Amino acid sequence: MLAAVAADSHDNLPMIERAVQVIGGRGAEVLFHAGDFVAPFAAKTWVNFEGPIMAVFGNNDGERAGLRTVIPDLHDSPHTFEADGRKVLVAHREADLSEPLLAQADLVVVGHTHRSEVAQRGHAVFVNPGEVGGWLTGRGTVALVDLETLEVELVEL
């Protein structure tokens, strides 16, 4: 199963639309979002993705009740999801993570820094997809993860 990983979309509708188009076109079946959708109107654009969206709140997600009406599988950070037999730990900030949660995860997804990173940490693959919104770096990015092999590809939007 191919998973898409995104974070920090910050209401940038054209970039969110592009991200949905790219990840759908590449065959992603599930989306993990590490927070900072910001507003429900922008989160509605993510719903155009045809698979399940599993996400956590970021520090800029103020209207939580409204966001949850758009994306029901939206949780406080951190949260562990299961997909294709893998435990996927999603957090907005790396500081949200704890050793017991990390020890159980196959894939760890974080955001907040707006900088993309892929690393092996212990037995888990650690992915920060960078920022969809492109507000801080001037470049929108997402990641694609093969959940069988845990191989990661960073994709520029």
Task: Give structural attributes.
five-stranded mixed beta sheet, Purple Acid Phosphatase, chain A, domain 2, single chain, alpha/beta, 4 helices, six-stranded mixed beta sheet, 11 strands, 157 residues
Could you describe the 3D structure shown?
The chain is α/β, with parallel strands linked by helices. Helix content is 21%, strand content 32%. A hairpin with a 2-residue loop joins β5 (79-83) and β6 (86-90). α2 runs parallel beside α3. The radius of gyration is 14 Å and the shape is globular. The two termini are 21 Å apart. The model has no long low-confidence stretch (mean pLDDT 97).
What layout of secondary structure does this protein have?
Blueprint: E1 2-6, H1 13-25, E2 30-33, H2 40-46, E3 53-56, H3 64-70, E4 74-75, E5 79-83, E6 86-90, H4 99-104, E7 107-109, E8 116-121, E9 124-129, E10 141-146, E11 152-156
Parallel strand pairs: 1-2, 2-3, 3-4, 6-7, 7-9
Antiparallel strand pairs: 1-10, 5-6, 8-9, 10-11
